[in-house]
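Fold this complex.
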Amino acid sequence: MPTFVYMTRCDGCGHCVDICPSDIMHIDPTTRRAYNIEPNMCWECYSCVKACPQNAIDVRGYADFAPLGHSVRVIRDEEKGVIAWRIKSRNGETDLNLLAPITTKPWGTAIPRVKDAAGPTQEQRDSQLLFNEPKYIRMDDGDIHTLESAGLKMKAGVYY
Amino acid sequence: MFTTNPFFELSGLISPLAMQVYVIAMVILVAGGTLLDTLHKKSARYFFENTEKQKKSASRQVSGGEKVAIAVKTLAVDVLASGEFCNQRRRVAHLLGMYGFVLFVVTTAILIFGYAESAAPAILPVLWHVGALLVCIGGYWFWFAIRVDVSAEGHPWYRVMRADLFILSLLATATFALLWSVFAATFFFVLFIAAATVLFGTVLWSKFAHMFFKPAAAFHKRVTKADGSRENLPEVPDLTDPAVHARYPDIPEYLGINPPNMGLGIKREAPSHY
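Structure:
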């Protein structure tokens, strides 16, 4: 299900070209609008769909299994810090709206500053643990946390 | 210099009737080019099919009065203020070019049809020159610095392709018009007419017709928001609404009751890495 661009919406800003991990979103030399140069190589990561400020990019369902026009569209609202999805089924009976937070702090304010962290001691260097691992797996907070220490038991089989 | 009517001085060389016939021919070329463009790209068919699809998925009916309000808003925001641009530099350049072009074309028509044989009020030639100047300022700024090939892809400004047909012929028209007015040389007049003929005669191949279909697309976009179809896009609700908190408990849990503005995210940086 490769991406495609609504030409009446696209203004050729280049955000999709910038973000595409496969480098297959390009600016068309004739119309100066974005287009997917190699739909076969698109793995539907939705990066460009979310990055497009004009919501000009959509993902096409292949005609053999999505013939009746289902739709999965998304708006990533950076200023509100949320992502909204709308999923419509082929028969039109389902029209699902979903909303989820994508950040808890303003963008760019909570980047880990690894270089400011204290360097490892000789003891830490000799240990088999990775840098800062004791902190991340909370070994400094009463040793490593296990099912046992949390009062849980491993159950057999698949359970949710 | 800016108060002289160049068409009045031209009337010694070319009869006003010939000038008027040329203007009418250009109008016909634009109308015909736009019509052919619509047929060739099947844009009208796409537009009406899209409207039918949108009506089917609409959750509410948009009344006639509401449509008028939407049309007024489209005119005020999207047309008169170029509100669809996200890039503010492009928006300013577009506003300069658009108002300059409208001033230039309208005053040209008035000067040719009304004042080719008599003295024009001083304001008209001034507006004609200001229009051409605005087109040049906005257009050259766009050409040398803003367009995506230069600003993001790092191509040199002189790399020309078909997408540049409109902007280049527009720039050439305004530039040669100014040069012709300043130097009163027939050479520049010939170039001015050549550029204007290319500008108005290549509507089928250039993006000239965007000034007609872009407002229609902007109006359609607003109608889809009003009738709830939203082109299948989700609605991003007001995050302070208690009903939203009840429906999506993650929102108050992670963002709080009154979420702050999180800033521009990836749009903090202009795309320029490709």
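Chain B touches chain A through 49 residues (CB under 8 Å).
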